[in-house]
Specification:
The protein has about 450 residues and is of the alpha/beta class. The chain is built from 13 helices and 18 strands.
C-alpha cells in the first residue's frame, strides 16, 4: 500500500475553508433576522401547523444552460409547492392555487434544495450548549489514553445529555439537516443511560427530525466487555450495531468483528463501525467486512464503515478494486471529508457506485472543537478537494450532503422535487445549488415532512 502525499492546497484548506464556513453562520443569522421585516400582505411565523398548504415563491432548478456540451449555468423558476400530510402532492406554476381555502406561505424566492443529512454525529456527549471548553492537549496521547479520559468525563457530562442534545439538534437544523444518524455510547460507564436520554430527546423531535441511533461501544466492544450491553441496546430500540478499531482497541480483529456482526444478525440490525486504523490492519478489517457481508447476504445494504481512513493508504489501483467490492456488497462509507494529510478516495468510491455519506462527528467535545454541524460546508470541502470548480461539478457535490438526492440529473432533467416526495427540504439564499456549494450560502428555513423545523416564514394574509 502506498499513501498519497499531502498537498499544500489541502493544508491551506485545513484553515481557510473552516474560516470561510464559520462566516456563513453570521450570514444565516442575518438572513433569519431579515425575515422579521414583513412584506405587505404577509406576516412572519415560526411554525406551520397546517397539514395541507401551499408554499409560493419557491426557486426551483429546472435545467442546465449549455455552451455546446458544457454546462455553463443553471436554469431556475419560481414555482408553488403543494404540501399535504408531509408529502409534496403537486409542483405548480407560481401562485396558481386549485384550492382557495388552503393557507399559503411564501419562500420569498429562496432556493429549495433537498433536506441535508448529518449521518455521523454524537448527540449524547458534547460540550456544545454549555460553556466553552477546548479539548485537553492530545500530544503524545494514544486512543487508550483518550478512552481513559472519557471514562472519567462521562459522569460529568451525563446530567447535561438531554439539554445539550437539544442544542445540537437545533444547530444542525439551523444548517438544513433534518435527517441524522447519531452514535450513542454503550459501555460500562454509561450503561444504557445515554441511550435512554437520547431516545427521550428524539421522541420530543418526532415532528421535525428523523434520527437513527447507533449503539457505540466507544471503550472497545471486547476491551470493555460490552457485548451484553450492546445486546440490551438492540432490545431497547437502537437501530445499528457499532464498533471501534478492532485491532488497535480490541486487539483481535476477527473476534471483534465477528462479535459485532453476530449481534447485528441476531437482532436483524444494521452495522456502523468507527474504523480509524490506517495501518495494514485497518485495510485487513475492511477486507474482512467485505468477506463477511458476502457470506451473509442479509447484511447487504445494512453496513456502514465510518471514517475508513485505511482507504487513504491505498494506491489508485487498489482503491478502484476495493471500491468495486464495497459497491457489490452495498457497503456504505460515512466520511467527515477530512482535511490535512489524509486524502480519501471519495471520488473513486462515488465513481464505482459506493454510497458516500457525510456528517458532523464532533461539534465541540473532548475530541475536537471544530465542527460546525453544517453539511453544506462538507459539500464545499468535497468540491474543493475532489472535483473541479465548474457549474456541473459543484452541483454534483451537493449529493454528499443530501443522500444523493439532487434537483437535476447529469443531463439537466429536473428529478426533484416530485409528487410523492417527502416535504423535507431547506431554503437557501442562493441562485442555484452550484452557488450554494461554492459559497456555503446562508440557510433561510428547514422543513421536515411539511413541518417548519427551523427558521421564520412569511404567511400570506388576505
Amino acid at each position: 500500500m502506498t499513501a498519497e502525499r499531502p498537498s499544500g492546497r489541502r493544508e491551506f484548506l485545513s484553515t481557510g475553508a473552516k474560516v470561510a464556513a464559520a462566516c456563513t453562520l453570521f450570514g444565516a443569522m442575518s438572513s433569519i433576522a431579515n425575515a422579521q421585516n414583513e412584506p405587505a400582505g404577509q406576516s412572519a411565523i415560526s411554525s406551520i401547523t397546517d397539514k395541507h398548504y401551499y408554499l409560493d415563491d419557491v426557486l426551483l432548478e429546472t435545467g442546465f444552460n449549455f455552451r455546446d456540451s458544457t454546462v455553463i449555468g443553471t436554469k431556475t423558476a419560481l414555482q408553488t409547492i403543494e404540501i399535504d400530510q408531509g408529502k409534496i402532492v403537486a409542483v405548480l406554476p407560481n401562485k396558481q392555487h386549485t384550492n382557495s381555502t388552503l393557507n399559503t406561505y411564501s419562500a420569498q424566492g429562496k432556493l429549495m434544495l433537498p433536506a441535508f443529512r448529518d449521518m455521523h454525529i454524537h448527540l449524547d456527549k458534547t460540550f456544545y450548549g454549555g460553556p466553552w471548553q477546548a479539548p485537553a492537549s492530545r500530544e503524545g496521547k494514544t486512543i487508550m489514553d483518550m478512552i481513559a479520559l472519557e471514562q472519567k468525563m462521562l459522569p460529568e457530562l451525563q446530567p447535561f445529555t438531554e439539554e445539550r442534545a437539544h442544542a445540537l439538534i437545533n444547530l444542525i437544523q439551523s444548517q438544513g439537516s433534518t435527517i441524522a444518524r447519531s452514535h450513542c455510547n454503550i459501555e460500562p460507564v454509561s450503561g444504557l443511560k445515554n441511550l435512554e436520554a437520547l431516545q427521550k430527546v428524539l421522541g420530543e423531535h418526532q415532528q421535525d427530525l428523523t434520527c437513527e441511533i447507533v449503539a457505540f461501544p466507544q471503550h472497545g466492544l471486547l476491551l470493555s466487555k460490552s457485548v451484553p450491553l450492546m445486546r440490551e441496546a438492540m432490545q431497547a430500540g437502537a437501530h445499528y450495531v457499532g464498533g471501534l478499531d478492532p485491532t488497535n482497541v480490541d486487539g483481535a480483529m476477527e473476534k471483534s468483528l465477528d462479535a459485532m456482526f453476530q449481534i447485528a444478525l441476531d437482532y436483524n440490525k444494521g452495522v456502523d463501525i468507527h474504523l480509524h486504523e490506517t495501518s495494514p490492519a485497518g485495510f485487513a478489517a475492511i477486507e474482512y467486512m467485505i468477506k463477511t457481508v458476502d457470506e451473509n447476504r442479509s447484511l447487504r445494504g445494512k453496513v456502514t464503515i465510518s471514517h475508513a481512513f485505511a482507504l487513504a493508504t491505498l494506491s489508485p489501483e487498489q482503491a478502484e478494486k476495493t471500491a468495486k467490492q464495497l459497491a457489490e456488497q452495498q457497503i456504505t462509507i460515512a466520511s467527515t471529508v477530512p482535511i490535512g494529510t489524509l486524502h480519501m478516495p471519495l471520488k473513486t468510491l462515488n465513481k464505482n457506485g459506493v454510497f458516500v455519506m457525510t456528517g458532523t462527528d464532533s461539534v465541540v467535545d473532548h475530541w475536537s472543537p471544530f465542527g460546525l454541524g453544517d453539511m453544506l460546508e462538507k459539500a464545499n470541502l468535497y468540491a474543493q478537494l475532489y472535483t473541479r470548480p465548474d457549474e456541473l461539478s459543484l452541483s454534483r457535490s451537493l449529493a454528499i450532503a443530501t443522500g444523493n438526492i439532487l434537483p437535476l440529473d447529469e443531463k439537466g432533467t429536473q428529478v426533484w422535487p416530485a409528487k410523492g416526495d417527502d416535504a423535507s427540504f431547506v431554503l437557501v439564499d442562493a441562485s442555484c445549488s452550484a452557488e450554494a456549494v461554492a459559497r456555503i450560502s446562508p440557510r433561510h428555513a428547514s422543513f421536515h415532512k411539511g413541518n417548519l423545523a427551523h427558521g421564520v416564514m412569511q404567511k400570506s394574509v388576505a
